[in-house]
Amino acid sequence: MAERRSRPSPRNAPRKQAVEAPDPRMLALKTLQELRGGEVTLDELLSKHGYGLPSLDRNFLRQLLGTTLRHLGEIDAVLAPRYQPPQDRVAARLTNILRLGAAQLFFMDTSDYGAVDSTVNLARDAGLHKYTKLINAVLRGLQRDGFEWPEGVEDWQLNIPAWLRGSWKKAYGAEIAQGIAEASLGHAMLDLSIKDRSQTAEWAEKMDGIVLPTGSVRLEPGRRIRDLPGYKDGDWWVQDAAAAIPATLFSAYKDKTIYDLCAAPGGKTMQIASLGASAIAVDKSEGRLKRVFENLERVSLGAAIVTGDATDLAPDTPRADAVLLDAPCSATGTIRRHPDILLRQNDKLMQSLLPIQTKLLNQADKLLNVGGELIYCTCSLQPEEGEYQVKSFLADHPNYERKAITADELGGWDEAINDAGELRILPIHMTDFGGMDGFFCARLVKKS
Length: 448
Ligand SMILES: C[S@@+](CC[C@H](N)C(=O)[O-])C[C@H]1O[C@@H](n2cnc3c(N)ncnc32)[C@H](O)[C@@H]1O
Description:
By secondary structure, this protein is of the alpha/beta class. The chain folds into 2 domains: 24-155, Orthogonal Bundle (N-utilizing Substance Protein B Homolog, Chain A); 247-446, Rossmann fold, CATH 3.40.50. It has 18 helices and 12 strands. The chain has helices at 15-20, 24-35, 42-50, 55-70, 72-79, 91-107, 112-125, 132-145, 155-159, 162-172, 174-184, 200-206, 245-248, 267-274, 286-298, 341-344, 347-366, 387-396; strands at 190-194, 210-211, 217-219, 236-238, 257-261, 278-283, 304-307, 320-326, 368-378, 400-402, 423-425, 439-446. Helix 14 (267-274) links the parallel strand 5 (257-261) and strand 6. The radius of gyration is 23 Å and the shape is globular. S-adenosylmethionine (SAM) binds next to helix 14 and strand 6. Its EC number is 2.1.1.176. Residues 1-21 are annotated as: Disordered.
């Protein structure tokens, strides 16, 4: 399926312009190379590499990378019979150049000539002169023969890595797993949280959006955030509708103190503060905490901010009435927004996060007053990071019990509440409204 994009400045643009603005295709290659490390996200790399690019080129960069990542399995399958990566250190770069070329050829509205020619130029500019003939031959072959679809497979089977397909099938069954996979390859809507929740309907009307049962305002994607009414005055912030649910469960905590562990960039901190509670935002990343400061400032809300590893807080750190733990996770529920997860994440990496989540849960217990509530959530579809973590925490902490999340708290929406009273949101939920990110949330009470 073709995806629309704006055209970048042509490669044969006047020399002066080419020197001033870096080639977005070269930046796309650089980004793909850096994504392989697994640590840095596409959004972080896009802000680094896209910074200062003219907006047309920045859009093209984002679209080229998004398209390549969403179709990576198909692209690799169509390249495989025509190209064996050379056994030298340029192999990864060469493969990524071909992937970018094939993405433009088959999934974007670049002309065939433009896709082949610009990819050959990219290889030359990247210092791979030796391989320009090979690239030209592979892409011309693809252009001539079209997309030769491997037999007996569907696109989601190629584009979603086997470890994810297998884990979703095991957790949810074959049919739901396929639905999750297909939905994950789509595009996400634009969701907003309104600072004054009593004004939600008015803001939705002003922005031509709808109000979801859970209270978020939903807009069509592609709107320029800064141009929307209320942005400058800080009347709302961008926050995925599923991720916005946990903090709304604290509606009875006005004037109470709540730890927001793993808080950056601060979506949930702003929600807690807007409920009239005192938020203590803790995050180990100084860089990401800057975003919390900036966000709070824009929306004129306040919170205490602590920079540090939440698993390593001083033993005399004061306790609070509630703790929200939005633990670091594989984020496999957010592939629609972050298609780089398909390339960066793997089973081993996900497994390596489990002990950190357990440690953070144990620390959350130390910070919570008796009688208080601990809300644990992750934007992962993997039960190891959600249901199993909670089950094992409860087994180790008999002084806790689940407090079921109810449909009343979610505006009557009950599709995602499981038998244990936890929230297990799947990307196939709320399809009539454009779907949801995958998400898990459980509420636990400290009885003694
Ligand atoms: C899922 S994001 C949090 C999103 C945030 N709660 C929000 O709603 O905007 C996870 C965050 O956990 C932080 N983090 C990871 N390990 C941590 C630790 N041991 N202590 C404190 N923060 C940690 C990361 O820096 C990252 O900002």
